[in-house]
Design brief:
- With 434 residues, this protein is an alpha/beta fold.
- Helices cover 34% and strands 21% of the residues.
- It has 12 helices and 15 strands.
- The strands form 3 sheets. A 6-stranded mixed sheet has the order 2-3-1-4-5-6, sandwiched between helices.
- It is globular, with a radius of gyration of 24 Å.
- The model is unreliable at 25-39, 64-69, 198-212 and 231-240 (pLDDT under 50).
Length: 434
């Protein structure tokens, strides 16, 4: 289970640019207008072989009348509460200002690793200007340039060194299923329906737990650990941001699980927040089952189900080989079908294909449809093997791996899925030099 690193600070200091560099793709919006990061952004990163989740919070603003900025303030406080380590970013161009001092005041009370990152330091003169940030009372700082990447290596070295060690201990070697999704999608009701008791409080107000809690489920021939993501909200947190709690809870649960049951309200649809949770599970290489809850409340015609399913698959391209189960928790319709499907996905994720069988099946397919020639160079794939990893990963050995492009890798992935049934499981294809 990897750790969570939160990036906090006032608006317009370069948090989103730094976030994009960490996750190695442009996902967060980068704009010179103050407060543009009003949504949270989540991604996976790794440094020195250690994986961690990254959260780019909105900019912290004190005393603003803007309803969005008031919400951002709450999100930053929640990120501080939930994260394992915090990167506090400031801007050398503007120097220390009252908002920085307010954030620093919050962080000085936190019993977690805090790293002060002075951004936009791209010259020796600015190195000297950064000295004033000692006044924030957070000790040593790191000078970085988020755009060029200068200085970020030293910062990340320190961050990953401070993160808690991953625990390999498991009480029992059982599948771990996490029920994740937006608030009020039916997570608590689904768990209650499965275990047959009102163990989890079901209200219209979303709750939270700091850590994942496992519940052993051993009934009707099933035996697995169910990860609780539907905890009870503390009274002091009632006014806090519901959506932020939802995703923070999902991040923790996803990293702790083997299979994620992504549940959402059919009336609300497979919206951006649900998709964000889906892609978090995919990037974490977890098995996935999509549960469309409250299907009994949807007005149906002959093709409604097929059209609804097709729309979901369009949203999750290119990873469309995911089971979708239409359920009604209230009426207990197909909830056990959902669990049966999750068990099958778990088996697919754990599947090991013998090397001889892999080659017997895949090499004739490759010979029939070889990689296209590039610059007059012909790629010859000689051998394939499954790597000894917890999730399905395959290495194809060839003479010119650098000439095998993503479309052909997707072709190989699709053939692996078709021939060996990896439904619901992200798989990785690597080209290696023979």
């Amino acid at each position: 289970m990897s750790s969570i690193v939160a990036i906090v600070g006032r608006p317009n200091v370069g948090k989103s640019t730094f976030f994009n560099r960490l996750i190695q793709r442009r996902e967060a919006i980068v704009d010179s207008v103050s407060g543009v990061t009003r949504d949270r952004h989540y991604g996976k990163s790794d440094w020195n072989g250690k994986e961690f989740s990254v959260i780019d919070t909105g900019g912290y603003v004190v005393g603003s009348d803007d309803v969005f900025e008031a919400e951002i303030d709450r999100q930053v406080k929640l990120a501080i509460d939930e994260a394992d380590a915090i990167i506090f970013m400031v801007d050398v161009e503007f120097g220390v200002n009252p908002m920085d001092e307010e954030v620093a005041k919050l962080l000085r009370k936190v019993d977690k690793p805090v790293f002060l990152a002075v951004n936009k330091v791209d010259s020796a003169m600015r190195e000297e200007d950064a000295i004033e940030f000692y006044s924030l009372g957070l000790g040593e700082f790191y000078t970085i340039a988020g755009i060029s990447g200068s200085g970020t290596g030293d910062l990340l070295d320190a961050v990953v060194a401070a993160l808690p060690e991953e625990s390999e201990h498991k009480e029992e070697d059982l599948p771990r299923f996490a029920v994740v999704g937006r608030p009020n999608a039916g997570k608590s009701s689904f768990i209650n329906a499965l275990i047959g008791e009102e163990r989890y409080i079901v209200t219209d107000i979303a709750g939270t737990t700091r850590d994942s809690i496992d519940t052993r489920y051993n009934r009707f021939g099933f035996d697995f650990n169910l990860i609780d993501t539907a905890g009870i909200r503390r009274k002091t947190k009632v006014k806090e941001d519901v959506e932020f709690y939802s995703v923070m809870r999902s991040v923790r649960a996803i990293e702790h699980a083997d299979v994620c049951l992504v549940i959402f309200d059919a009336q609300r649809g497979f919206d951006g927040q649900v998709q964000n949770i889906f892609w978090l599970a995919q990037r974490n290489k977890k098995g996935i089952v999509i549960l469309v809850n409250k299907w009994d409340l949807v007005t149906k015609e002959t093709q409604t189900l097929k059209e609804y399913e097709a729309k979901i698959r369009q949203e999750i391209e290119p990873f469309t080989d995911v089971p979708i189960v239409f359920i009604s928790v209230l009426n207990k319709q197909r909830i056990f079908k959902a669990i049966e499907t999750a068990v099958e996905v778990y088996k697919n994720r754990s599947k090991k294909i013998k090397t001889r069988k892999l080659n017997d099946v895949m090499l004739p397919l490759i010979e029939h449809n070889p990689p296209p020639a590039t610059k007059g160079k012909y790629v010859k794939i000689k051998f394939v093997t499954q790597l000894p990893t917890p999730t399905p990963q395959f290495a194809f050995f060839c003479n010119l791996p650098q000439y095998v492009k993503d479309p052909y890798k997707r072709y190989l992935e699709n053939k692996l899925r078709k021939e060996f049934d990896f439904t619901g499981v992200p798989i990785s294809v690597y080209m290696r030099k023979k």
